[in-house]
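Protocol step 4 of 5: obtain the predicted structure for the target chain.
Materials: sequence only (see below). No template structures provided, no constraints applied. The aim of this step is simply to have a reference model before the mutagenesis design in step 5. Sequence pasted as it appears in the construct record:
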Amino acid sequence: MEHLTASLKWLEGHPGVMLTLGALSLLMFVGSLVSLPYLLGLIPRDYFAEESRHLSRFHKLHPALYFTLMVLKNLLGLVLILIGLAMLVLPGQGIVTILMGVVLTDFPGKFRFERWLITRPKVLQAVNWLRAKVDQPPLREPSG
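Step 4 output (structure tokens):
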């Protein structure tokens, strides 16, 4: 409790920090509202319904270009996960932003985690609502 009081007292003496945090929060909120429907619309309708993972369309590129794109894709995914975690306490669509970050990153067990996450009724409902905003059909649910 003592740390919280000290932190609040420090913030009171630094209004610029509060203004910056407020501006970043607003920027993340607006950015997620604008970009998430588009990004969710790029996911193939059957991405989660199939038992095996889709092969990346970048796989046929030159190895150096493929590696560069995969690093950039994973960095973007990590940034989205971090922003989504922040949006759990700030305004924005935190869970959906985290889902998009997870979709972009590569890690062991990712496909199984994605399928588990999308089976949460509220997550699937939110994703399909956002896909409808960009005239995309709803995602097919995983079987079993």
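Step 4 remarks: The CA atoms of residues 16 and 22 lie 10 Å apart. The two ends are 46 Å apart (CA to CA).
Proceed to step 5.
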